[in-house]
Design goal:
4 domains, 24 helices, alpha+beta, 8% strand, SH3 type barrels
Length: 710
């Protein structure tokens, strides 16, 4: 209310005194004023040309002339362009009005007299101010009378939603009562005091603007409640609620009192050109306040829109202020350009946009729920198909992003269509149909190949990691453990190659020259890389003939070790010291496989020449029987134990050879354990295990029969 009185006082100061000075020289009748205004228009070249054009149009209409050609319908862009041109004309007219003393003086003389009484405006402005002051005094009195009631009806610190809503409505009603008293007192003053028409219209404008602004502020304060967090209906903290209320209050006051300024200018008969400029400037001021509010709160709104999430929602939250500013600018342009049906277009497009975004959000949540349900199905299926969950977890994030991107892409197309952008027309065009069809076919091909490859991998893993009814792993042969990983790798290469060629074909690329070029390049590479080809072919035959398998101990090209991996070109071994040897298949001449199917632990037992070899053989069988009956070693040996007899008559020992059959890779451990037990048993029975020795004597005669050993 104080702002309204201030605006009215400024109006009185700026225009009242010049009007009073001009009142003594003004003509008595309104006809003289109209004639003077017409004379002023004729002096202005632009207005004179406009008047001539209108007279010609009226004359053509009286003659019944029809236009030569009907102008085509003008779209919103043309209307905006015309409005910009008209806005420039308004600015030029306003400037010419401001710098023309005669025209300005004439407006002061005409605009500040009441049409009914002819009295100067400054004489009745005081009566209007007195009426407003009387209404303000009534409002203050009512507010003081209700102070106790307002204090007793303070909003609760906390409560349910219903209690908060009831308290908010009660507080709003208590705030509306003084405002209603002000309005009733103002209308009563207008009915009691016979104010001139101009002053009465100004008082009504002030009352309407004050009521609208203060009602809006009261409603916002009831919802936001910046002083009481427990009574707040909006889900905001104290700082955000206070900041939002301050900015919304500025926006409401800018709209209400901007309208008051424009209405006062209309009541005072401001000419069209400066009046249009004033309206546009007020609209720009409101737009500036709204844009400032958006930019000032962009970070808080961005954090609230994100909600700890990511993806497309986070990206939209980062640019929400840009969208809001563009929307406000579009609304202002439609308003300033007075585009026919512009606000209906914006309202309809905005409603469809909100609906599309809401539907996209619901569909996004539905997709997330479906993916979570699929994840729960994986947990149940993993018990029947081990490995499904582990493999599916690698694709779940990608599938989640793809489905969410598809949902929001459809929502974006709907938004574009709501704003009459030809999105569907572009997609329905021949080029769009070809592109979409190609992308769909490519996606289907790659999806099918991916499912096929995963099925192959899952089948291979299930076969290699199979378990029996007791839960023990089933031992697979080295051939399977070697060929199946190679099959998986070859399948991946084949499917990827076919998929890439299919995608290239769908995109319109002629793959026939590509295939021919690849064939020629392969032939040239084959001639230039004979060693590589030799490695590949040799390795292919070695693998196909099952000469070597992963996990076996082999000796190839002078290197021995356990086979760790087989590729298309090389074999990788790791020896006893941990050294890795990578041997190309082309260098493999002979393969010595020490662990294929079974192995033999061969032991050569050396005894003295004075020992009975039959007795020694019996002792060796006794040691072997002890190992066969031992729980720790019975699974590492395969009966029967073989004693071959005397293998060699050495320089200092008689060598008796024996052999134990063992599972693959067990021969070395069995041989070590057998030698340990044989040594202990020989020591117990006094069987000599000779060792090389040398007899030393000094020359000069016949050697003695016995000399000390050295």
């Amino acid at each position: 209310m104080i702002r309204a009185l201030g605006i009215l006082t400024v109006v009185a100061v700026l225009w009242g005194w010049p009007a009073g000075m001009a009142a003594q020289e003004a003509p008595a009748g309104s006809e003289a004023a109209e004639l003077e205004a017409l004379a002023a228009d004729l002096k202005d070249e632009a207005k004179r040309a406009e008047l001539v054009r209108r007279i010609e149009m009226l004359a053509a209409a009286r003659r019944g002339d029809e236009p030569e050609a009907e102008e085509p319908a003008r779209g919103p862009l043309a209307s905006v362009t015309d409005s910009i041109v008209a806005f420039g004309g308004d600015v030029a007219g306003s400037l010419s009005f401001a710098f023309d003393p005669g025209v300005f003086r004439q407006w002061l003389e005409q605009g500040f007299r009441d049409p009914a009484s002819g009295a100067p405006f400054w004489t009745v402005l005081g009566q209007a101010l007195l009426a407003l002051l009387a209404a303000l005094v009534v409002e203050v009195a009512v507010r003081r009378l209700m102070a106790g009631l307002r204090k007793g009806a303070e909003r609760p610190v906390s409560g349910t939603v219903g209690e908060r809503l009831l308290a908010a409505v009660l507080g709003l009603l208590l705030g509306v009562v003084p405002l209603a008293a002000f309005a009733v007192a103002g209308f009563a003053a207008l009915s009691v005091v016979a104010l001139p028409q101009t002053a009465a219209e100004l008082v009504l404008a002030v009352i309407y603007a004050s009521i609208a602004a203060r009602l809006a502020v009261l409603a916002l304060r009831a919802v936001l409640a910046p002083e009481t967090a427990g009574a707040r209906l909006a889900p905001l903290d104290d700082a955000d609620a206070a900041g939002l209320l301050a900015w919304l209050r500025r926006l409401v006051l800018a709209v209400a009192y901007g309208w008051l300024v424009c209405e006062a200018a209309r009541i005072l008969a401001l000419p069209p050109a400066p009046y249009g400029l004033l309206v546009d400037l007020v609209g720009l001021a409101v737009l500036a306040v709204a844009v400032a509010m958006v930019l000032r709160n962009r970070e808080a709104v961005r954090d609230r829109l994100r909600g700890g999430g990511g993806g497309i929602g986070a990206r939209l939250a980062d640019i929400w202020h840009v969208v809001a500013v563009a929307y406000l600018a579009a609304v202002f342009l439609v308003w300033a350009a007075a585009v026919e049906g512009g606000f209906a277009y914006i309202g309809e497009a905005s409603a469809w946009t909100v609906a599309a975004v809401a539907a996209g959000r619901l569909a996004d949540l539905g997709v997330l729920r479906l993916i979570d349900a699929a994840a729960r199905w994986e947990l149940r299926a993993d018990s029947r198909l081990p490995g499904v969950k582990a493999r599916a977890e690698r694709y779940m994030p990608v599938l989640r992003k793809c489905f969410r991107a598809a949902v929001w892409l459809i929502a974006a197309i709907a938004v574009l269509e709501a704003w009459r952008a030809p999105a569907l027309d572009l997609l329905a065009s021949p080029v769009g149909e070809r592109v979409i069809g190609a992308l769909v076919r490519i996606a289907l091909v790659f999806g099918l190949f991916l499912v096929l490859w995963e099925a192959i991998c899952l089948a291979i893993e299930r076969y290699l990691d199979a378990r029996d009814e007791d839960g023990n792993p089933v031992e697979r042969g080295g051939r399977a453990r070697t060929l199946l990983p190679l099959l998986r790798r070859a399948s991946a290469i084949l499917l990827l190659t076919v998929g890439v060629l299919t995608a290239a074909s769908e995109l319109g690329i002629d793959i026939a020259p590509l295939l021919a070029g690849v064939g020629i390049a392969g032939l040239a590479i084959g001639f230039g890389a004979q060693t590589l080809v030799k490695d590949v072919i040799t390795g292919l035959f070695i693998v196909m003939e099952d000469q070597v398998a992963v996990g076996e101990y082999v000796s190839v090209a002078g290197h021995s070790g356990i086979v760790e991996a087989l590729s298309i070109r090389t074999i990788r071994l790791r020896d006893l010291s941990g050294t890795v040897h990578v041997v190309p298949f082309g260098e493999v001449g002979t393969v010595e496989n020490l662990t294929r199917d079974y192995s033999y632990a061969v032991i050569d037992a050396g005894v003295g020449y004075g020992e009975d070899t039959d007795r020694v053989s019996d002792v060796l069988r006794e040691v072997a029987a002890s190992m066969e009956s031992d729980e720790d070693w019975r699974d590492r040996v395969i009966p029967p134990f073989e004693v071959f007899g005397v293998q060699e008559l050495g320089d200092s020992a008689v060598v008796v050879r024996c052999r134990f059959k063992t599972p693959p890779m067990r021969q070395w451990a069995v041989a070590r354990e057998f030698r340990r037990r044989m040594k202990k048993r020989f020591d117990e029975l006094g069987i000599e295990i000779p060792f090389p020795h040398r007899t030393v004597y000094f020359g000069g005669g016949k050697p003695p029969e016995s000399l000390p050993e050295s």
